[in-house]
Amino acid sequence: MTDLTLEEKASLTSGSDTWHTTPIGEAVPALTLSDGPHGLRRQAEQGDALGLGDSVPATCFPPAVALGSSWDAHLAHRVGEALAREACALGVDVVLGPGVNIKRSPLCGRNFEYFSEDPHLTGVMGAAVVTGIQSLGVGACVKHFAVNNQETDRMRVSADVDEQTLREIYLPAFERIVREAKPYTVMCSYNRINGVHASQNRWLLTEVLREEWGFDGLVMSDWGAVNDRVAALEAGLDLEMPPTGTDEEIVEAVRSGRLPEAVLDLAASRLLELVRRGEGRASFEGWDLDAHHELAREAARASAVLLKNDGDVLPLRQGQRVAVVGELARTPRYQGGGSSHVVPTRLDNAWEALGRPAFAAGYRLDGQPDAGLSREAVAAASEADVTLVFLGLPEAAESEGFDRTTIELPAVQVALLREVAEVCPKIVVVLANGGVVSVAEWQEHASAILEGWLLGQAGGSALADLLTGAHSPSGRLTETIPNRLTDVPSHLHYPGGDGHVRYGEGRYVGYRHYDTLDADVAYPFGHGLTYSRFTYSDLDARETGGDEWSVEVTVTNAGERFAHEVVQLYVAFDEERPSRPRHELRGFAKVGLEPGDSERVRFALAGRDIAQWSVSRKGWRIDAGAFTVEVGASSRDIRLRAELTSRGDGYAAPLDRMSTLGEWLAHPEGSRALKQLLQGAPGLDRTDPALLRLAMGIPLAKFATFGIGLTSEVVDGLVAAVRGDG
Hints:
It comes from Nonomuraea roseola. The protein is 28% helix and 19% strand. By secondary structure, the protein is an alpha/beta fold. The strands form six sheets. Strands 9-14-13-12-10-11 form a six-stranded mixed β-sheet. It has a five-stranded parallel β-sheet with strand order 1-2-3-5-8.
């Protein structure tokens, strides 16, 4: 750093324009950044400032809402590698993705960019995308760090959330990706966290991310997230994007002594290290458009979720008269709006992929009623044996920058479905949506429901593959589908107001809430049907070391065709009065089997998998005792259970005068000392359960006036004894 001037070092901490870092002569080249969670959005040279209207064509892969539903980390890695190949061909050094924020509410307008309501699944899928991108020397940028779970007031709102919830729900995916995939960069979010902007939150960017998790890359801002350049640098933010022309503030702060030059040196060195890493980027003239389109089709096929299939109406059969109803079959929605919008290299639609059967638009995409279109749809359906009804959310309903206000489908679409169902006995609904939609009010009119999400540029062909039976559906839900919006655990708190949003539901997000309360849902987390059926047998769960266990199960395809099963492992805690979520996902495996074939699926568990965050200890706590492992096909379809025991971490909280009687009796040394003292003590009938229950919550110091020998001096002596002071 000694050969750079103060001004040059300051310049490295902000971009040179919207999409480039700042070069310094020939010694430090500019790096090119590009949006790209599911496809490259490389700005055209003469395009607009953000490139939203005129980006260079690139493969539009299924967004994270779909890719996550594949539950296939190997596939996610391959998609990441394809993104990297296109980045190399387009001269992109850093891909701004993946997004790994948790789906706290189905209303979040950006949910299509995120994987799941579950941090374990999100972390595994996100890590796979990152390793895929970085396998060719292109940098990945994990975003948005952290607690960016809504678009409403996103640049100012304070996400007010307790530390245990942060550690167990909103940070673990980032932690897994940082520790396992080692991303080159992390992007901070816009929002405040408990009152402090993420861009200048030292606890988040330095203490947790770097010192605790070992992150050694560069932290950049979301576009426009910096509010105070000096405070952001001090907190651990290395790169402001895009530039605001305030580099002189950094120079002045160093010269005045307000900012240590060592802080600036560290940030600049991280940018230089990112440049060095970019020197290993592969070089390609272009990419195989057909191969990448086929990968997008494969990913889309793996991501659609068959929610319902009464009477095995799917797959379609030879000779059936099929009608297609719904403009979305001809004009597909395949991605969400905002910064992730990709200009695709081509675009399939389901109607053409199905061979152009009888078609009726049925509705207008703007949601306005059109009686003529409805009549045409009813007429087409009346002549069909099976009618495929394509429904979904219009493009204007979900995007970066704003949240939805409802999870209902457009009223004109639901009305059309009811009309069509009156004239055709077999209705298959195919959905297109980036966020969960309610099915409770209309699913009785459908024999089958295929949740298509947003499937990228090859989604139309992928849907045809699934509907015709060329492939069996293999996607599974990564978020619970509630019966109604008011059932969602965050409903009373979302999206907040007066500059704050309170995470009042705590750790009980998604299935952790519904399953703990055994609340009714439309479709549970992990649910998805195939054209086959699977059995589970021979569960073997055993301890392999200190707080380490192995879990094995045999899965068999008991159906008549090849299909995939997603085997899910949960750790469960059966408590009369829940003190934590009833069960939590801790492993999954996607296996493809021919009819009659079996596979032994193996999982490994460690102490962290059963741990809770302890606020008082500022660390993870592993309690001794029994817990249950559950293996099944969804959070509500548990096939096999086995009990295991943890030895615990051996930690005993220090005792003091205000520790309760219950805490003293639970402490190994405290219990021994106290029981010896209380033997034969007058006034305490230890055989009275009600009295004991009352006494357990009383701090020891408060017994001084009860006449049982626990004077203030005795309590002080007990404290000194268990601490080893006396």
